[in-house]
Amino acid sequence: MTTTSSEFDAKREQGMKHKDAALREYYNALLFLRGLNNDVMATVVPKDPENLEEGDITELNKDLSVIQANMAACHVRLNRSTRAVQCAQDALKSNPFNKKAKFRLVQGYIREGSLTKAEKLLDELEKDSPNDAAFAAERRNIATKEAEAEKKQRRELAGMFDRARNDD
After folding, report:
1. What is the DSSP string of 131-159?
2. Which domains does the chain have, with CATH numbers?
């Protein structure tokens, strides 16, 4: 049995509603977890990243980071690149060692067109996992975006030179 176009659209819409519901639940979890700690300074990661070790991160910050990274993943899939970047950056503020949050930040950067930032972070991630298929897929996304940008730039430049010739 094959799915018709209208059935597909209805199922996709229902799936996206669940994704939005997941975002609400993640947001509620963040509010709840942040409320567990009366001392706001206890959730702040020390300022000197050079001396920071993974063991310095509190369990609460690790939990917050996981939730924020999951929120970033939802936003990536909903094509909300700005929110994906914000959530991933928040996750990394809570736990700079969260590799999934770094990967979500890469995805957000690619989707918003910040390809240089994405490549730099991806280089960092690939040091530990050079053969990761997800990283390779994002490399292909970067290459595609760069090719599209180059093609657009060539068209714009060609149009500019055509206008200059017509003005003569």
Report:
1. T-HHHHHHHHHHHHHHHHHHHHHHHHHHH
2. 5-167 (1.25.40.10)
